[in-house]
Amino acid sequence: MTMKLKSKYEKAIYAAGLLLLLLYCSAEAVAQTDELVINVKGKGADVSSSMYGIFFEEINHAGDGGLYGELIKNRSFEELEMPPGYTAKGDRLIPVQVENHVTGKIVDHYSQWTTEPVPGWSLNVDSSVADMKLTKENPRYATAPNNLKISIADASKPVSLINGGYWGMGIRKDEKYNLRVIIKASSKHKVEVTAKLLSQDGTELAKAPLTGLKANNKWNEYNVTLLAKAHDPKAKLALEFKGEGTVYLDYVSLFPEKTFHNRENGFRNDVANMLAGLKPGFVRWPGGCVVEGATTHNRFEWKKTLGDPAARSGEYSLWGYRNTYGFGYYEFLQFCEDTGAGGMFVTSVGIGCQFRMGDACSEEKIEYYLDDCLDAIEYALGDKNTEWGAKRAAAGHPKPFPLKYVEIGNENWGDEYDKRFDMFYAAIKKKYPQLILISNHGTGGTGKIAKTDMIDPHWYVSPDFFFENAKLFDNYSRGNHTVYVGEYASNNGVGTGNMNAALSEAAFLTGMERNSDLVKMASYAPLIENSNKRDWSVNLIWLNSDQVMGRSSYYVQKMFAENKPSYNLKTNVTEGARSSQDFEAGSVGLGTYSTQAEYKDIRIIQGNKLISLDVSEFKGKKGNWNTENGVLIQTSSETNTQGIFNGFKGKKDYTLEFKARKTGGNEGFLVYFAISDEGKGFAMNVGGWNNTSTAIQKASGEWLSDVISQKNHSIETNKWYDMKLIVKSDEVILYMDGKEVIASRNTSAPKQFYAAGYDEATGEVIVKVVNSSNLPYGLNIKLDGATGIKNTGKIISMKANNEKEENSFENPTKIFPKEEVYNFPGNEFLYSFAPYSFTIVRIKADK
After folding, report:
1. What pLDDT, in 10s, does the model give residues 217-239?
2. pTM value?
3. Positive/negative CA dihedral, 649, 652, 653, 657
4. Domains plus CATH for the chain?
5. C-alpha to C-alpha distance for 169 and 171, rounded to whole angstroms
6. For residue 593, what is the DSSP state?
7. Coil vs helix vs strand at 690
8. ∠155-158-163 over CA atoms, to 5°?
9. Opening angle at CA 717, ends 715 and 721, nearest 5
10. Do 360 and 99 touch, CB atoms closer than 8 A?
């Protein structure tokens, strides 16, 4: 690679930089030295102000026991309320038996269920002294009918009702906590009640009496403030009763006085500040799968989240615990306003989660869901003279909230979804043309819908996928819609979230930011986990009762958001070099995905040799396989069915030929090749993604993972296709009926990735560099066309000692971005990027 250095000064600076690089790397090898040329006058696409945002879902106790400030678990005693038609068997909650709207079958599904008699609550005495039970006798609120009846038979010693919160209450010294109790005492009752905060070992941290307790057999509310005199991460609340009698508790709530922006019914301050630190351009709420529910019977219902928290019913979530609805629609919109983010409301279209039961409401009831969505929009945006705008104003917010986006459904697909999407799109656009409406379609196509503003592809993958697909959007067609990458994460083979995951996400984000004319928004998922209840393997932010910390992936998102350019700059390269690699020797096989199919005339051609693959040698590993007159038949509707021909193990330069016919189902054929004895290799997924595209994917056993290459493509039912799969040393090509469908080379993923842009507010060139190699990486950066370079700039870098390193509660900033002042010699400089690092360079320069 040749560089043109104009002056003796520039040559001296370059030589000095090279010497420093060599000295820096004297004890270790250097990956390579490349050149990145940035055309400072070559303005690219504007980067959207909403580019980086937040996706929130009640999963992993992200809200209750997480972001939401409530410290009491089961405060309204509604924890054991089931959705209509659901039943409990031991620790399993069985949904109402409904048919999947696509297959017509009933799916075997269950959620986690608790066997505690009164979840979250206990008495400090045995039942001969006092007992408690749940009742619905004369409830304070019909919408939250359960209350706790406590009968005290022995007044010889105090009786304490204890709540340990969500795996302990993080009580802090000298901070105030507001307690709200709704209680009813019988007219014969002569009991005194004192509220106490206790440490894990029972030491008193604070106390306050509920003075003036009325024994009038009516519901009365009491509010007291508790001032903590010590810190304890595992504290608990005790309501101490003295005397005999019967009391009923309807609601017991404890909040820190200091919440985010001091909001009532607000958020835990440290957690909310972590989210605000991401500088979100938008917040997506309420999910996620909770939008649909395991069935429509336990979908998220936003109207039930309004008003007094004590009257909110909550809902048992498909993630295996009850959502209190404390973090409701109003609180979501208020948080958007407090953080300067645009609101994104996700509405149900009357389809249950298609990864679970997958039911759908009747045709007649679709209008109900549409009206419910329009009401939600009116609540956020409507004038205070409208029905729902008036309710918002009555709640304390006369002005509209910053709702900007509506996603229609969540991870729904198929003809039924497409029909409903069109109905919602037309009705919403007619009334609120300014809103951006988002469909659930991915990059494989938009099905049968008429129009959408944005699509929402999701990727939960291994790091290899993001490293290999950083250029995925470079050649994506423009004009029909833009893209919101609503859920993405490297969560496969990364521990609980290591540096390799973070670097792969950074690589993928360079591609999203570079294609910002198309990709307008992105949000990592899931957002938060309480470390005591991990429902999803890898999450962005961890917390417990006392701490909150960000994974290395959190700091990647933060670095991108804090260093977002106004627009992109053109560069000579966008990623490091790739190298070809041969396919390993392995077997071939066939399968289907949610589809029934038939295969016949199966043979291998290798050189001049013709090898017929006898169906008797076919070993079906998953699915319902049988043979009839030499035809291999698969009749199951399972995903990823698979069978392998054990009689052939080819490495390269062979052709697999066969005839294939789809006889039913949603998708298409799977053609496996280069499958090792351990089951690892590749698969051609033909007519996948609801029969919208064909892709080459990695395979591991019955699982398909990273997409190597993908094209829009569909297949017909009951049509025989002549299939030909050509496997060369490092290339695979699929032909159907003599026409090439897809081809791809087997290459190693790059190790380095780049993006560049210009910040008009600060007058800086921003360069982002990912080095996922285990060696330092020398890069000569040239600012072509820049003038007025200011020597002093800064470098922000995050690095790890190895790709498997992770942050932890013990060392939460082990991987953490550090900023340094850096003196740049001019338009051209050499810099060594550390192994396993993500670095941002900011240089003052005139354009």
Report:
1. 899 999 999 999 999 999 999 99
2. 0.88
3. positive
4. 8-42+751-844 (2.60.40.1180), 57-70+261-571 (3.20.20.80), 119-256 (2.60.120.260), 586-745 (2.60.120.560)
5. 6
6. S
7. helix
8. 130
9. 60
10. no
